[in-house]
Every structure is written in structure tokens, then in C-alpha cells.
Design brief:
Layout: H1 2-23, H2 26-34, H3 39-42, E1 50-62, E2 65-70, E3 73-78, E4 94-102, E5 110-118
GO molecular function, one term: DNA binding
Organism: Acinetobacter nosocomialis
Keywords: DNA-binding, Signal
Amino acid sequence: MKKIVLTTITSLVLFVSSTTFARTDPAILNQAAKNVVTVSKAKTLADETGVTLTGAIVKHIADDHYELKDKTGSIVIDVDDDLANGWQLKVGDKVRIVGEVDTHRIKPTEIEVLQIERVK
């Protein structure tokens, strides 16, 4: 019985790890490195396009959603807590994000953040 429980837990951990790894697909990261764009340009790109954006956090919307603004406009970004590497993301922070365009039928386009760093 203990072996079954241990095997089940191990399988679950491996599944979650592989799902998390899938979010950081190297092809998306490579595409984002070549696709340094403004917010207004990001809003016009196709779903799942890799992008790199730089701007300032102007609003904490809820949970892991923030508003990022550059000189061309603003967009909602989705930043998982574990991406900030121990620092608390707050209004006024200037950041560079690597992420993936996330289009929706009804609500506006967002960016699913894969990597984030503070910039000066």
C-alpha cells in the first residue's frame, strides 16, 4: 500500500513539473528574444507569440495580475509569484518581461509572463 501511495505522489510531482516546464518552452523563449516589442505592438500579435517588453508596473489588479505600461500604452500581465525570485513586485517597478501573448474572445489581450527582471 505504501508503494502505491509513494508511486502516485511521485507521478503527480513529475506531471506538475513537466507541465511547468512546458510553460517555458525554449522555442517561445527564442522567439521572445527576437521579438522585443512595445505594448501597442504586442496587442496586435497572434496568440502564443513570444515577446519581450519593458515598462513600468502601474497597477496591481488582483492576485498575480498587474498592469504594465510603456510609452505606447498598457497591458495586463500575469506574473506567477515564483517568477519574482524573492522580490515583491510593486507599483513603480520598471521591469523587462519575457512572455507569451494570450488573446481572448471577450477580454483584452494579456501577456503570460515566463521571465521577469527589474531594470533601471
